[in-house]
Amino acid sequence: MGPHPAVADVRRAVREALADVQRDALVLAACSGGADSLALAAALGFVAARMGLRGGLLTVDHRLQAGSAERARTVAEIGSRDLGLDPAEVLTVTVGAAGGPEAAAREARYAALAEAADRLGAGAVLLGHTRDDQAETVLLGLARGSGPRSLSGMAAVTGRYRRPFLGLPRATTVAACAALGLDPWDDPHNDDPRFTRVRVRRRVLPVLEAELGPGVAEALARTANMAREDADALDEWAESAYQNCALSDIGAAGKPVELSVAELETLPDAVRRRVLRRAALAAGAPSGALFATHVLAVDRLVTRWHGQKAVDLPGGLTAVRRYGTLILAISPIA
């Protein structure tokens, strides 16, 4: 008799996600001890040796709850003793306050994962995000009024990070853990309504399922895939257009960027605004502080020109139009 269907599903997903990884490479599973990441670690432990890979585990102790250090050690022990993962390490982090608790914890976690992956020479790091997580991400993007890049959700592959379970519902990881005799840890933060994502998970999605019928999460995840394809295509077009519009050397970061207004005027709105964002970043604007309102203000120098003054941008940057040239540079522009 073969494995339980849920177990077969998670193993298949991990195997497909690692199909292009070089043999003998180290692959690490980021594991919190919850059902999603525990099923991920178990699948990696089964699949790695059969694919000629080495499987390991990283668990992060955020030190935000009593007993977190002991739980992290237990997760590492399960990875080493029961799942055959080596190394199995606990990464202890200090969570700051910038951007709110969710963002601060995420930033600390990814910084620790990146450092460990570099130190251990890992070829890939697996993350346990499921189709349900993807649906939540899309809804959060919709609530913020974000563009297609945000609505595209999480990518299956982002650099060293891979998310094998984006096509699987959370119920599959829960069933896989039960079939394998694994006892996931339920993080109380996952039920804390102070967190926006928890409210989306516990309140918003169930209402949508009840009112619109089953399959909402799957439809949102499918929307994310289509939005990602569109966003990728627009970004590729914008990069080519940026090269065509440039009147200055755009190879040096932080240097003034000059763009041809005549060329910018020929572009569709979605492409032109991507070009302007790309130019602002190249000229020195910090990405985390550059918002759509800033890009739209610069866009008006192209599309609604009536001799207006320069536009101030984050990072001490200024955008100004002069004689058919749009100039973005650190203030003041001579």
Strand content: 5-15%
Number of domains: 2
In the CATH scheme, the class of the largest domain would be Alpha Beta
The computed structural class is alpha/beta
Kindly state the mean pLDDT as a whole number?
A: 92
Provide the low-confidence segments as ranges.
Answer: none
Oligomer: single chain
CATH 4th-level superfamily of the largest domain = HUPs
Number of helices: 12
Give the CA-based shape: elongated
CATH fold node name of the largest domain: Rossmann fold
State the end-to-end CA separation: 76 Å
CATH architecture of the largest domain: 3-Layer(aba) Sandwich
| Number of beta strands | 10
Sheet of most strands? 6 strands, mixed
The rounded Rg comes to: 23 Å
What's the SSE pattern? HEHEHEHEHHEEHHHEHHHEEE
Strand order of the largest sheet: 3-2-1-4-6-5
Secondary structure: helix percent: 40-55%
